[in-house]
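[SOLVED] Predicted holo structure with adenosine-5'-triphosphate

Edit: marking solved, answer below. Original request kept for reference. I posted the sequence and ligand SMILES and asked for the 3D complex as structure tokens.
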Amino acid sequence: MEKKNVLLSVKDLEVKFRVRGRILSAIRGVSLDIYEDESIAIVGESGAGKSVFTKAFAGMLDSNGFVSNGSIIFNDPELSDTVVKLNSTAWKFINSYKKQLDENSRLELGSATYRKMLELESEMREKSTLSAADKEKEEKELHALKVKRTETFNKKQTLDPAKEKAEIKAAAAEIKKLDAEIKALEKATEQKIKEHKNAVAHDAAYQKSYQERMEKLKKQYAEETSKDISDSTKKRNETLAKEVYLSVGRYKFKKRFKMGKGLIAELKKAMQLGVDLNSEEERNQVFGNVTFRVRYLDENSERLHGTCIINLAQVKDQNDWGQIRGKKIATVFQDPMTSLNPIITIGKQITSIIMKHQGCSEVEARGKALEMMEKVGIPNAEARFDDYPFQYSGGMRQRIVIAIALSCQPKILICDEPTTALDVTIQAQILKLIKDLQKEYHYTIVFITHDLGVVANIADRVAVLYAGQIIELATVEELFYDPRHPYTWALLSSLPQLAERNTKLYSITGTPPSLYNKIVGDSFAPRNPYCLKIDTLAEPPMFKVTETHYAKTWLLEPNAPKVEKPEIIQDIHEKLLRAYNI
Ligand SMILES: Nc1ncnc2c1ncn2[C@@H]1O[C@H](COP(=O)(O)OP(=O)(O)OP(=O)(O)O)[C@@H](O)[C@H]1O
């Protein structure tokens, strides 16, 4: 495969939702590189996490959702390039930062002693609680019991209440027994901690030695941190102060002030601990606790110039999202009426978006809007400009939504089931339109669908999602002709295009696992007709099939028994050719 530029790099992404005091894990450790100019389909059953995955990088997660882990790096040089004005206010900020950083840098001189003080404190804490070894042992035992409980609970959920009453009763009794064991273990640990606390409080010799050692360290720390800092540290702080200002300079005064303060506090903590602030990586991490770090590049008398790495998982400010959502990453949803305002004319809706994002006059925007309407295939655009959405057909409305999405020339166009609500012939036209316009506008298509049939028409690559994880990633050809995961087999087998006359269409039995519970083993195991013993015990890794093809199934482990894919998808190539008449 030719080398392509990575546009969006997702690593170990986890997205969770708070739901009435419980936590639902919708995305569980997804890593995926999305390339410039490609078309990637995200497929899976309802609830697999397709929409949540794309909403995480389009800044559209519901308010109870949050990214709990991972990064989403968006490589866009235009957005990364940062310029802030150097006026008298800017200099006031920078000079004040520099002064504080120089002051805090003294703490770096005593960081080794500071860490020793922390160690001593933690020694005292450990003595008052369990030892590290005891704690590990207790956690291990508790974890094993909880895993066993989850397994038993999951197994109970799969039992048939009509036919397997005895098994259900036995599982319920086992769960009750495990609950009691968990409680007893927790109580015993609590008791042990209480005893340790008492013992330390009454150990006069230890208390005395602790005080003496701490006093000595404190004295040493005071001496070390009263010395002068070096010229090279001062020079580094000058750049750091500018980086702090570059990183917060885009915000309004009040926020700029607050974020700047936050960054200085983070840097102080890092200095205290002796973090190497000359290292790019460490610096990124320290800044990342508050906002993106903008790396200093150069300056002149009027402006500071820097560049930053954009991690969409960390964007919180709505103004920052305003620079990305709609402008760089646009979405087309299933129902065009959710994107269009029913009481505003089509022309006005397109022009207002163009004016907002491109900052042009109304006359100019009108010209561009008409051009876009023609591009997406609205006949007689001038005459239809002042019509309302209800005067357009469903397919035409979707074309308008596409025109709006493309009017800002986004880098990524997310298509969330954009043709599901349309009839088959219109579906094909809209897919063709999205593909054709890609050649002209060079956007990346991220196409969400539960229908693998659509995938064959639009995608270069496919990521199959199950219970919040990518379980197979491949090129379209590999996925259709050499699928490796039993879930992909099941999805392909249930393609309506494969149904033969007088035969029943295949459907996947059972339901996906609850995303509220920890999933043990392979999440597809309870529904998998090819389930191995290991599937119920351990989560499979991603196995590499080819450079472009990966699947998360124990069937690919070299020692696994050889299993053939189901009969119905053996000659899927021929059947699809016939179904699509190609
Ligand atoms: N705001 C929310 N609060 C709680 N749970 C949510 C929220 N949004 C999504 N979820 C849950 O996250 C999981 C993934 O949902 P998502 O909408 O991404 O599924 P999907 O694959 O796009 O399915 P569909 O085709 O039905 O849209 C589901 O279990 C869903 O219930």
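OP edit: The chain has 21 helices and 15 strands. Thanks to everyone who chimed in.
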